[in-house]
Amino acid sequence: MATAPIEPPQRLVSSLSGDPEGPVREWLDTLPTLVQRQLDAWDLTLERVQAPGGRSSLLCLVRQQDGTAAALKFPVPGRVPAREGTALEAWDGWGAVRLLRSDDTSGALLLERLRGGVSLRSLPEAKALLEAAGTVRRLWVPAEPGHSFETLAGRTEEAVEALRTAGARTPAAGPLVDRALELRHALPDGSDERFLLHGAFRQGKVLAGERAPWLAVGPEPVVGERAYDLAALVLDRFEDLVAGPGAAAAARRRVAKLADSLEVDRDRLRDWTLYRAVDLGVREATAGDRQRGELLLEFAAWL
Question: Does residue 39 fall inside a structural domain?
Answer without folding.
Answer: yes
